[in-house]
UniProtKB/TrEMBL annotation:
CDD domains linked: Glyco_tranf_GTA_type
Glycosyltransferase 2-like domain: residues covered: 29-169
Transmembrane segments: none
UniProt name for this protein: Glycosyl transferase family 2
Record InterPro entries: Glyco_trans_2-like, Nucleotide-diphossugar_trans
Glycosyltransferase in keyword set: yes
Single GO MF descriptor: hexosyltransferase activity
Keyword field contains DNA damage: no
Keyword line: Glycosyltransferase, Transferase
Record Pfam families: Glycos_transf_2 (PF00535)
PANTHER family, per database record: GLYCOSYLTRANSFERASE, GLYCOSYLTRANSFERASE EPSH-RELATED
Organism of derivation: Fibrobacter intestinalis
Length: 368
């Protein structure tokens, strides 16, 4: 066993021999971006400590926390010599993940958010399958914890040693629209677009300069996977729900996000450029348009109609009219296919298409 000191004084392990399998197992780097996660971090990292596959490197990336997260990271690092702690001045999950990929020594990287956790055998199962198949990308499913309610989110119904072209296309479309009409199996969450629940071959990321966009704080995962999936050819999947996603009040899905239209516009522009440059079919365009309309729904829910928005109602209405006149949102809105949306969403879609701004604000005041 080769041991070297890392930059924080903890040890990083390179190439532990797995005696049971009599081989040198490929190293997995688990990257955890952390921002003010002191209340949940210990549970998250504990799930990494107890991995039955021991040849893992745990990279805890603190990026600007103002609570006790950094102190807790250092405490946890003192308990396990596989932990590397980074303290970054820059904020943002994209910055943290990119730095983690940059310094990782693993052949594969996987991401776990600081308020989530993973099952103890996920790395072992991946390592055993990868011994035979040498994946570029390996995906697994998630279990959503919503209070006392649990929701299984399967990307596909059946395991796949390797995706064929049709399965890969389905995965790419699910990044945009998990319930797209053309899909053989529709999902109930957007986990396909998440950077979590996946083992990425680090060499592919580095060779193709695949990084998380630091220009946006919204939908970074969707943009990353959109651009990355074209570069992965040996893709495998298990339907087992190894990832546990904790949906908490005040999480990123519920908080107030001012100026969200600026971030969504950035992501839309990048995805539209990708659609043009890669000459994707209308199936991709339709799915992407539905995603962009959902971004517009997000602007309403998380910004313009959010209870914490301090702007006058008149100013918010003017802002929505400007957004609806912007070509970035206008084209997807006009070309959106109704069979991608639920009935309530179709009502909101119609109101947006008709520019009935006052009615939109009136209705969302009561249903948000």
């Amino acid at each position: 066993m080769l041991v070297e000191k890392n930059i924080c004084g903890c040890r990083v392990l390179h190439g532990i021999v797995d005696d049971e399998l009599n081989r040198v197992a490929p190293l997995v780097s688990i990257i955890v971006p952390i921002y003010n996660a002191a209340l949940t971090l210990e549970k998250c990292v504990s799930s990494l400590f107890v991995q039955t596959y021991k040849n893992v490197e745990i990279i805890l990336v603190n990026n600007g926390s103002i609570d006790d997260s950094l102190e807790l990271c250092r405490k946890l690092a003192s308990l396990d010599n596989r932990i590397l702690v980074l303290d970054l001045v820059e904020k943002g999950v994209s910055v943290a993940r990119n730095k983690g990929v940059e310094i990782a020594s693993g052949e594969y990287v996987t991401f776990v958010d600081a308020d989530d956790w993973i099952d103890s055998n996920v790395c072992e199962i991946f390592a055993e399958l990868n011994e035979k198949h040498h994946y570029d990308l390996f995906c697994y499913s998630a279990k959503y914890h919503k209070g006392k309610k649990l929701v299984d989110s399967f990307l596909f119904l059946e395991n796949a040693e390797f995706f064929d072209e049709n399965q890969k296309k389905e995965l790419q479309i699910k990044v945009f629209a998990p319930n797209a009409p053309i899909l053989k199996y529709k999902t109930n969450t957007r986990f396909a677009g998440s950077a979590c629940g996946k083992f990425y071959k680090r060499e592919v990321l580095l060779k193709n300069h695949l990084r998380f966009a630091t220009e946006t704080i919204i939908s970074e995962d969707v943009l990353f996977n959109t651009l990355a999936l074209d570069h992965f050819h040996r893709i495998g999947f298990t339907r087992k729900c190894f990832y546990h996603y904790e949906q908490q009040e005040g999480s990123a899905q519920n908080r107030y996000r001012p100026n969200s239209n600026r971030y969504f516009s950035f992501v839309i522009d990048k995805i539209q450029s990708w659609l043009r440059e890669s000459s994707k079919s209308t199936d991709f365009v339709d799915a992407a348009n539905s995603l962009f309309v959902h971004y517009l729904f997000g602007i309403l829910k998380e910004d313009l109609c959010h209870k914490d928005n301090p702007q006058l109602m008149a100013d918010r209405k003017v802002m929505l009219k400007r957004i609806l006149a912007d070509e970035t949102f206008l084209t997807p809105l006009e070309n959106a296919r109704k069979n991608y949306f639920s009935f309530p969403e179709c009502v909101l879609l119609w109101l947006l298409q008709k520019r009935l701004v006052c009615i939109i604000f009136f209705l969302l005041k009561f249903v948000r």
